[in-house]
UniProtKB/TrEMBL annotation:
It holds the Pfam family Sec1. GO terms for biological process: vesicle-mediated transport. InterPro entries: Sec1-like (IPR001619), Sec1-like_dom2 (IPR027482), Sec1-like_sf (IPR036045). This is Sec1 family domain-containing protein 2. It comes from Lingula anatina. Belongs to the STXBP/unc-18/SEC1 family. Gene3D superfamilies: 3.40.50.1910.
Amino acid sequence: MTSVDVGQVAFHTWTKVCDKVRRAVVFVDDACAESLHWNGGLMRLVNAGALNVKEFSSFECAEPSEKKAVFIVSTPLRDVTETIIRDIIQNSQFQYVVVITTQGPLVHLFAKHGSYEGDEQYVFQSFEEKVLEWMGNMNYTAEVLHVPVCTVSVCPSLFVTPGLPRLFPLLPTDVTGVEAIYNSSKARVGDKKSFESLAEIETHHLPKHLQLKVKMLAATLNDVFEELHLQDDPYSVGPFSRLVATELANYPGARHRRKTSQSRASIVCIDRSLDLAGAVSHQGETLLDRILTLLPRLPGHNNDVMVSMADICSAQPVTSDAEEVLAPGCTAHADSSCRNVLATKKHKEALMEVNRQLVEAASSEHLPLSLSGRPGRVTVEQLHSHVKLFKGHPEAIQKHSGLLQVAMATIQAMQKESGSNMEGLLGLEKMLLQSLGDEECVSGLSQVIQVWEREMKKETDQSCRLYTIEDILLLLVYVYSLVGEDAAESEDEERKMMSLLAEAILSSKEEDIPAALTEFVGDPVTANGVTKAIEQVFEKLRSLGACRDDLKQFRTVYNSGSLTSQASHVPVLKQVLQEIFNPAKPDLLDIEHKSSGLKDLLKSGFGLFMNVSKPRPSNSPLLILFIIGGVTASEVKLIKDTVTSYKTGTQVIVGSTKLLKPSDVLDMMFSNPLLES
């Protein structure tokens, strides 16, 4: 089997969209706009003949002379999406409308009826009729198409699905909520359920809107396999991933592909919640981690950042506000080689590679290059001086724009003042890591309390403090994810930390309260609201260790060390790969296989009575690790390094719902009510 390139598949899929946009006004929602951003950008639609590209909003419309529209959306054609399409059409004078959705007919059937049963063709035909009614003439033309422009290839070894950026596994604290919602929807007492843990919850027990998200993710993964022409072999680690893997294995639309595809791939879905220590850590082994953490995100995007390009522009902003006039750069470009280095190499290696490419580019343009400094060592100042060589050379800037934007992102991330705060937090994490297993040391929570008490003694001006409320919350997530309730010695310690956090929030300005807590705290901020919010935060923190209670092999992510070795964090992702590629091929107790056909089912069944090997993810030439809830660039590097150490012939690709920075975890844990529609 030849090497699989998800990026080429994603790029090719947009060609089907480009075939439809000639002489059209195009309306794109945020998720599809992000996918387009990584697959050719706005100019790809313009070069294909689009007249204009606009935001997917009820406040937008077309000029009277513009008669054709193309809508590109990432959701089923119902509810808010349907309303926006109707509003735009009725406020315009279209005669030809094409609606492109990344969701197929089966997802639409479930969204409407709560099951996959029904006429798949009629789903889109009925919406075409609605579009014709909104245009006011049944003789006009309407088309509704399913085109899966639902993936983004960040680099050859990593893809993300921008359509579900806030999908996060349920926590043990959500069990009672699922039970209450499920039972309230059942009229008969005999239908009611009582759940003891997340492991007992099936997809049909979830609220319908969350069921739909599970189905949408399974359908998106199915679309990836469809485009790659591969049979899929689904596995899962964790209760929420089990639901997604089960849906993928039983997906009706996959039957034909599984019969006709010659090549096979394994996909292991993994719950992000099983190990949040790596996600909130400021270890930042890669430059891409640092860039994502320190630079502001592009508006409406979850996987790319804004890069100031003022240093190579002739039009210099005279004020900070004027800098907005200059369009920001980004890291998404056709040549992913430099971005791949940022994601998979250590800081020093990545800096050297970016500098090497800059030197080659400057030399090819005959710019006055002056090489200085020690061989084998590259400083940010050197990098900056090489970038500035391009100023005043517009043709050279245009030719090497992708490299220059990545280089500027690297420079700005390394120069950020808040970077020193990252080093300080990393130091605290290392201290906590070593002391958690030392019986002579105070508890992890007690150490966090000491840090915050020192900060609270400083002036009330937030700028005088080294650490923020958000930083302390990240440290708490780090400790509780590592050791669970063992993070605290007593309830009194927790109450003290809760009191300190409440005091800090009540004395803070509104803009200094972490965004992840604003929904919890409410508006206006009151003592009662803050107290309730902090109580909910600690309920979720205590549940982090319990996320692994149903596992057998991966129950712990903390190694307390010994006389000859230091304590360490043992990531779940690394443990999973070690079990998969272990030459001894031990039983995979926590990596659950989901049979996708009778042949697999019989093989698994006969394995109970005969000497038949059970299915393993390593049996396929391609392995996809899909982390539900986000992944960091450092974890992508960890996966690459771990697989390389086994010298296996298996190609491993990482997939996820988004690229994470530490604050994203707080947002998804504390201000992401998955059980509410």
